[in-house]
Each structure stands twice: as C-alpha cells, then as structure tokens.
Amino acid sequence: MPSRPRPFFRFPVVLTAFAMLSATLPALAQEGEAPVPPALTDESVVGVMTRAVDEVIRPGYRRFQASAGMLAETTAAFCKAPSEGSRTAVDYAFRQAVADWGRIEIVRIGPVIDDNRFERILFYPDRKSTGLKQVQALLQKADEADTNAAAMAGKSVAIQGFGALEFALYGTGAETLMQAPNGFRCRYAAAVARHIETTAGQLVAAWDAPGGVQQDWKHPGPRNPVFRTGKEAVTALLGILVHGAEAVRDQRIETFYRNGGTARPKSAVFWRSGNSWTSINANIEGLQALFDTSGMADLIDPNFMSIAGNIDFVLKSLHRVAPTIDPDIEKAVSTPEEQEKIAFLLVNTRDLILRLNTEYGGAIGLGAGFSFADGD
User: Is the Cα torsion angle 81, 84, 89, 95 positive or negative in sign?
Assistant: First the structure.
C-alpha cells in the first residue's frame, strides 16, 4: 500500500509557506521602517463602507432570510408528512441556514443587537445550559401556545433560536418526530424556524430602509448619529473583523477545546446536528468576504500591501483547514490528526487578530499602539 501523504496543514509546512509568501510581497523600504498611513479621505472611506454595506452586509442578511424561510417551509412539510425524504430536506435546509447565519453572524453591531435579535437567533454560548433546560421543560409540558411562532418574541430568547431548534430536531427524543404527523415537538420546531425567519426579515428591513442604518454607515459626517468621521466608521468596520476573529477563537473553539485542557465536545455550537465546523467555517468565510469585498486593503499605502496580503493568506489558510475537520466533535477532539487541525485554527486565529488589530490598524492611521483590547 502506498504511503499516506502528509496533510498540508502540519505546522512546519504552514509556517514555512507563510514565511515564503511574506518574502514575495513588497518589502519595506528600509529594514525596521514602519508603514506611513495614507490620509483617510472621505472618498476612500465612503467607498469601503458602501461596498461593505451593499455587497456584504445587506446581501448576507437577505441570503440568511431566504435560507431561514426554506428551513421553516421544509420543517412544516416534514411535520405534516414525516418520511426519510422530508427529513433529509430538513437536514439540508438546517445546514444551509446555519452556514448563511454564520457568514453574517460576524456583524455584531447595528440592528442585530437591538431587541436582543442576535440572541433570538442564536443563544450561545449557554454555559449554564439555560436554553437546554427551558426547551426540555417546554417539550415536557407540551403547551400548544408554544407552537405559535407569532408569540415567540415575547418569550425567553433561549427557546426561540437555533439552539432550541437544533435540540427539537436532533436532541434526545428526536426520533419521535418520525413516528406520527404533526406531533407537538415537530410543530414547536416549525414555529421556531418560522420565528428565526421573521427575525431575519426584521434585519433585512432595517438594513434596506433608505434613510436608516445603511445611510449612517455609508456617509459618515458631523451630523451622522453613528459615525461622525470616516475614521470612526473604518474603526467600527475593523472592529467587526477583530471581534469576529476573537469570537471564532474564544466563543466557538475554546468553548469546547483548549490545547492541553480537558475537551468538552458537548459544549460546541451545533454539536448535535454535526454542524459545528459548518458554522465556524462560515464565520471565517464572512470575515474574508468583508475584508476582501469592501476593499479595506485599499486604505493601506501601496508600498505596504504585504500587511493586507498576510491577512488574506491567514484567512485562506483557516478556510482550507476548517471544513476538513471531522464533523463528529467527539471524534475530532480525541483524534491526534484532528487535534492538530484544531490547534492550527487556534494558532492562526490568534495570529489573525494580531495582524488586524495591530498591523492593519496602525497602517491605516488609527494611532501608534492602537488596540481594541485596550478599549480604543
């Protein structure tokens, strides 16, 4: 039997490739020279913010609304006529909705934080198992009022988002969904899916309103209630990337796996449905789409484009590895080869945060020593 090729993600290989890439990018004019940030002109900032809003954020929420709607429809159809085919359709729709949410989930400012919309869509991490306990109690009680999607907005956020829906579809007792049509558990799941779609629609409406948040984001100025200057606007955009990368590392991966620590696979997001890495990889895709599509690299002096190139390289490396990890979280955290991949993600998300926070922030003129970690 031919020997098995070494996986591309091993640390020595990746680090060597990174060093080689850095060497091919434009060098600094003199050794030790720091980037000279270009002026953040209104024109350059408006262009970046406009592309971020019109080509990433608004389409991202529209895609999520569409996939949430498909999930609601397929779940309702499955409840009416349970079968292997209708169940497969639900599984596919659930995965697609998780992925579409993951890509836009990185935007944790703006309308999504109003009225607890973020938590209404995904209540995670749930360190005290609050959501699990509430959903289990709800299913045990079987109150018909809990199958009313329109009434969910007034209830606990823990029983109306992806976490609740995942338990209903994939948690303990989910096998009963196939036993008879229109069971309480299934109709509750359908109601949760419909409520997720409704919340997604609220986000689409908020971002599409001509005089609303999109106007504030695309046109910073002294009378703007959100961003008084272009610098404030770009700082917020960079904050999405920095905090998004931190969330991948701290709230997604380190919630269930730390190098040298005790693994807790059942603390991983979407572990019941096998969609943990679907979600995490979608987060990474969202970060890369925002950085690349908005043209944030254009704000850096062309002589120092290696900064943007390095950020893009790290993002692509993360995106190559995440989808290859075993979707069974318990196997992933206990298999040496899979552990190596997870460790790669931890090392490189940390590197990504530093490059965004320190190198990019300084290169666009956010000030010497600028750091979100310092509260700037």
Answer: positive
Closest C-alpha among 194, 185, 329 to residue 253:
329
Cβ contact 282:262 at 8 Å: no
Rounded alpha-carbon distances, angstroms, from residue 359 to 18, 45, 206, 309: 16, 18, 33, 12
Q: What is the pTM of this model?
A: 0.89
Long-range contacts of 323-330 (CB under 8 A, 24+ apart): 323/277, 323/281, 324/9, 325/277, 327/274, 327/275, 327/276, 327/277, 327/278, 328/274, 329/256, 329/265, 329/266, 329/268, 329/271, 329/274, 329/276, 330/265
pLDDT per residue over 15-34, tens digit each?
433 443 443 333 333 444 55
Max CA pair span of the chain: 73
Whether residue 203 contacts residue 195, with contact meaning beta carbons closer than 8 Å, is answered with no
Q: Compute the distance between CA of residue 270 and CA of residue 298 in angstroms, rounded to an integer.
A: 36
Please compute, for residue 97, the number of CA atoms within 13 A of its CA located in the half-sphere on the CB side.
31
Please give the DSSP secondary-structure letter assigned to residue 171. Answer: S
pLDDT at residue 366, as a whole number: 81
Measured from the Cβ of residue 47, the count of other Cβ atoms closer than 10 Å reads: 16
Q: Look-up: residue for tokens 């069974």?
A: 328
Round the CA-based radius of gyration of the chain to a whole number and report it.
22
Indicate the Cα dihedral angle 291, 292, 294, 300, nearest 10°.
80
